[in-house]
Design a protein that fits this description.
- By secondary structure, this protein is mainly beta.
- It has one domain.
- Helix content is 13%, strand content 51%.
- It has three helices and eight strands.
- Strands 1-2-3-4-5-6-7-8 form an eight-stranded antiparallel β-sheet.
- Strand 5 and strand 6 form a beta hairpin.
- The protein is elongated, with a radius of gyration of 20 Å.
- The two termini are 31 Å apart.
- 21% of the residues are buried.
- About 10% of the residues have low confidence.
């Protein structure tokens, strides 16, 4: 679950994949990667392994968030999302790991009924580790980061999401820190959004 929108567990994978000799960098990548990366990736062989990288910038037009305030409106989201991706494949050509670094700028939530907005900042790192190499149905995803919403009138923080979450193929495994999106979408408790809703309804 990506909110807006495994240090111990991945340590072995990180160690195994990060130590590739510099002399192998720049080799032509293999053409039988499983599964193949999307077309916007550029891949390079590093010894027997393959690393694929990509950068994307997306202007997100107003979209509903599924956050419905007690005042009777659904909150909308928009902004600019910048993402950097790194995918790693093992010596057999199977996908084993992906890291995405995501940043949102010029971003805000809005009330479509009165035009009020709440700007926010957001930075996240998503680390996906495949339990079975090449099988994306076995991904365990760890997210760390911070997402802060500030009332432009009072300059107070009306919502903050910060900490760590871990989702396995079976669902939420662990979380820590302030996690209002987990409370809302996993435990069906929307109360953490009350201050933000009140500011948008003003």
């Amino acid at each position: 679950m990506r909110t807006h929108h495994l240090p111990t567990l991945v340590a072995g994978v990180l160690g195994a994949l990060a130590l590739t000799p510099a002399a192998f960098a720049g080799q032509v990548p293999r053409d039988d990667l499983n599964p193949p990366p999307p077309d916007f990736y550029n891949c390079t062989a590093t010894g027997e392994r393959t690393i694929c990288r990509a950068s994307l910038v997306e202007v997100v037009e107003p979209v509903p968030t599924d956050i419905v305030c007690p005042q009777g409106f659904e909150v909308y989201d928009q902004g600019i999302e910048t993402s950097e991706f790194v995918r790693r494949y093992d010596a057999d050509g199977n996908w084993v790991k992906r890291v995405e670094r995501e940043r949102w700028t010029d971003s805000f939530w809005s009330n479509p009924l009165n035009g009020n907005t709440i700007p926010y900042t957001q930075r996240n790192i998503f680390t996906d580790v495949l339990g079975v190499p090449g099988d994306d149905s076995t991904i365990t995803e760890t997210q760390v980061g911070e997402n802060v919403y500030t009332d432009p009138v009072t300059h107070k923080k009306v919502l903050k999401s910060v900490g760590r979450t871990v989702f396995s193929p079976d669902g939420l495994e662990a979380y820590s820190g302030q996690q209002p999106f987990i409370e809302r979408f996993v435990f069906d408790d929307p109360s953490a959004f009350d201050a933000l809703c009140a500011a948008l309804a003003r």
